[in-house]
Every structure is written in C-alpha cells, then in structure tokens.
UniProtKB/TrEMBL annotation:
Signal peptide range: none
Protein name, UniProt field: (S)-2-haloacid dehalogenase
Entry's EC annotation: 3.8.1.2
Superkingdom of origin organism: Bacteria
Length: 229
C-alpha cells in the first residue's frame, strides 16, 4: 500500500499528558482521581450541549463542570481555581515519545494536522508550550469549524471540506474511543492510542490501528503504507 492518509491528531491526552492536572485536583478535592470524574463529565456535557444545539467555548464549559463537580463533592472552590485549571490545560506537557514520532511520520511523507475541542487560542498555546507546533501543516479547532463538539459528524465533515479530501483519505489518531467512533462513522480511518485509563469499546466502529503509544503507532503506519497490496 503506498497511499498515505492525512493524519488528524486529537490533542488532549493523545499528544499531551492530561495527568499533569492531577496535582491541581488533589489540591482542590483532596484526591487526584477526581480529575477523571471531571474529564468524563466534561465530555458528557460537551456532547449533551451539541445534541441540543447549544454552543460555548470548551474552556468555559470545563470551568463550569469543575464547579458542578465541586458541588457534588460538597466542596467550595477557592478563588482562582478556574484560572488555575485553564492555565494548567494550556501548558500540558507532551508525552515523551511524541516529538520524535511526529518527526518520523512527517519524514515518511505523512501530512499531519490536529483537531481538538479546545478553542483555537488554547490549542496554539498548548502546541507552542509543548514545542510541537512545527510538525503540523494546519491545526483545527471546533470553534473555527462548526458550532459543535466532537464527535458530532459535522465536525469531521468540516475538516474534509477544509482539506478538500474524502473521509477515506483521513485517519484520526486519538486515545478516546468516542472520538474514534465519530471519525469512523464519518468514513475516516482510525488509530487508537492506549493511554492509561483508555481502552477500545467492544461495540460499534473499530480503529484499524491500535498501539500503546505514538512511537509504536508510527511503526505500524510506516510499515503499513510500505506494504505492497
């Protein structure tokens, strides 16, 4: 196979280490595990708002979900908690293997893009802080594409229109199966990274590639396109 799909990367947790937020949640709630509860609720309410045709910035929603989770835990957030959360998200560290793996994929002839629910401002701050922005041909935020969050079909269609490519020519790289499900349902290929706390769902559309990290996925993709069909 010599056709190289354009690789569209999710950002939060796929390229950047979300567990960097754990100390903040430990300080606010007395447990770092509340991070996972907050993130799950953030994804849930992002999808609920999209289904009901409401739109707001992902960062604003994240802060509101933080307040909601605090209320369910009987906690009063200190002044500045929302600011601390937004600042920490904008400076999430890159996973150690990511820079070299991106460089390898780019050198192998793949076109690299990002697609995130984050605002464009936060997205560019994240990629600059992680020093990986130069690997990507373009970086897409849902707030520039559609009044919806992933995994709404309109988001993936908007990327196709921006790139002038059919869904079959695109491959989403993500560690969240709900994102993979959305992309695969739109006709894209899918590649899933098994970051800690994430696993494939055994029903619905499945990713064509599964790897423990981006270095392993790069091996798979480079080998796959080099294999004659």
């Amino acid at each position: 196979m010599d056709h190289k799909p354009a690789l569209i990367f999710d950002v939060n947790e796929t390229l950047l280490d979300l567990d960097h937020l754990a100390p903040l949640f430990n300080r606010l709630f007395g447990s770092p595990h509340v991070l996972r509860e907050w993130f799950a609720q953030l994804v849930l309410y992002a999808q609920s708002l999209t289904l009901n045709h409401h739109s707001l910035p992902f960062g604003v929603l994240g802060c509101e979900v933080l307040k909601m989770v605090a209320a369910t835990h009987g906690k009063t957030l200190p002044a500045g908690a929302s600011y601390d959360l937004q600042r920490a998200i904008a400076t999430l560290p890159v996973w150690p293997e990511v820079p070299q793996a991106l460089a390898r994929l780019k050198a192998a002839g793949f076109s690299l893009y990002t697609l995130t629910n984050n605002s464009a401002e936060v997205l560019h701050a994240q990629l600059d802080a992680a020093a990986i922005a130069h690997h990507f041909t373009a970086c897409f935020s849902v707030d520039e594409l559609a009044a919806a969050f992933k995994p709404a079909p309109v988001v993936y269609r908007a990327v196709e229109q921006r790139l002038g490519l059919a869904g079959s020519a695109l491959c989403l790289v993500a560690c969240h199966h709900w994102d993979i499900l959305g992309a695969r349902s739109a006709g894209w290929q899918g590649a899933m990274l098994l970051r800690a706390g994430n696993a494939p769902l055994g029903v619905g559309p499945q990713p064509q590639f599964v790897a423990h990290d981006l270095a392993q996925l790069a091996d798979q993709l480079i080998s796959h396109v080099a294999t004659p069909t």
